[in-house]
Amino acid sequence: MTPPPDAEALNRRRLAQWQAHPYLGPHAQGVLIVDETGDPKRGSRSVLAAQHYLGKLGHVANGVVAVTSHWADGSRHLPLGVKPYRPASRLPKGRQDPAFHTKPELAWELIAEARAAGIPFRLVVADAVYGEHAQLEARLYAAHLPSVMGLRPSPGTWQEVQDEAHPPAFTPAEAAARLPLAAWQRTVHADRHGKPLIRYVAELELGPRYGPDTGVRLLAATLDPAQLTPASTGSLVTSLPLREASPEQVDALSRLRDGIAHFYTPAQHELGWADEQVRPERAIVRHWHLVLLAYTCSLLVGALPTPPTATTDPSPPPETTGGGKIGPRPSSRVRIRGAGRLDRHAAAHPQLALPVGTAAALLDALVARRPTA
């Protein structure tokens, strides 16, 4: 079988297979999440390697960074696309080079591709890297796409100070610190390990730009409103009006980003997202798309139920079992194949597994042509 040489074309076929799935396909209540991932690298021969802040390390290091998009609804998740971030230091004209694009610009390309593919979603969710980009905000507004994005607690706002003895708050952190404790709403939700996590959210007003009655709302979320430490407190901005989403609902939409870990963890450890042994950009991007394809196939194949047997008796008579321990035992339960699929933790030192059964039918639509003999 000969796969299509264009990684983007392969990705479109992958998404089409997912969209056609009867009960795992996307719906209009899902959200599109924009995120980025960085992996440390040794040396500088890879065209995408440069000094970046790598979240998994917590500091600046040599590595490769990609911007990714995901669809999620809180119960399931699927990666949509990936764009390599070309560092300006590796381009001939730096940031003025035509090949250079900022991460928010790459995010908009991914959003536009998802819309062109007909993938439904109700809004865009992203962190502060994208929430403070005016051009991305303007594009989302022009496209009538609501958003929930992070905002750093430190950026200031221009305001007129009428009373120098009592100046207004200039930053989200200052606005949150001036709230009375009664203004914070207590919320309880389960973290990704199923344990209850208590958070507090509050609506903020900051100058003429942010407020519950303006076009952009500002919210704060923290683990302890009495001690608003930077490590436990964050700020959110959203274009959703208050009548459509309460502060608790906005915070819940933002927390859908936490579910991306259910993709990155198995993809990086099980499928080798960062293990490409190539240096050209095209080869690296092709490797990433093959990882997305493998993840999607494992999800869709694992969700295909086997046809139930005709009998409804869970305890068949002895003659149907062959009288021994290895005889066939029919069952009326609909089994879900792929119990160990990639949305669970990967086993240590996994071996290569060949897909069987329905995987061949799933891959059939992704193949451009096949040998006739």
Report on this structure.
This protein is of the alpha+beta class and about 375 residues long. The protein has a domain at about 145-155 and about 170-240. Helices cover about 25% and strands about 20% of the residues. It contains nine helices and ten strands. It has helices at about 5-20, 105-115, 130, 135-140, 170-175, 245-255, 260-270, 280-300, 360-365; strands at about 30-40, 50-55, 60-70, 75-85, 125, 145-150, 185-190, 195-205, 215-220, 235-240. Strands 1, 2, 3, 4, 5, 6, 7, 8, 9 and 10 form a ten-stranded mixed beta sheet that branches. A hairpin with a 4-residue loop joins β3 (about 60-70) and β4 (about 75-85). α1 runs parallel beside α8 (about 280-300) and α8 (about 280-300) packs across α9. It is globular, with a radius of gyration of 24 Å.
The helix tally amounts to: 9
Global outline: globular
The largest pleated sheet is described as: 10 strands, mixed
Q: Would you identify the regions where 5 or more consecutive residues have pLDDT less than 50?
A: 306-358
Helicity, in percent?
10-25%
The total beta strand count reads 10
Mean pLDDT: 79
Structural class: alpha+beta
Radius of gyration: 24 Å
Question: Strand content of the residues, in percent?
Answer: 15-25%
Order of H and E elements: HEEEEHEHHEHEEEEHHHH
The span between the termini is 11 Å
Please render the helix and strand layout as text.
Elements: H1 7-19, E1 31-40, E2 50-54, E3 59-72, E4 77-84, H2 103-116, E5 124-126, H3 128-131, H4 134-142, E6 147-151, H5 172-177, E7 185-190, E8 196-204, E9 217-222, E10 233-238, H6 247-254, H7 261-270, H8 281-302, H9 358-364
Parallel strand pairs: 1-5, 5-6
Antiparallel strand pairs: 1-3, 2-3, 3-4, 6-10, 7-8, 8-9, 9-10
Helix pairs in contact: 1-8, 8-9
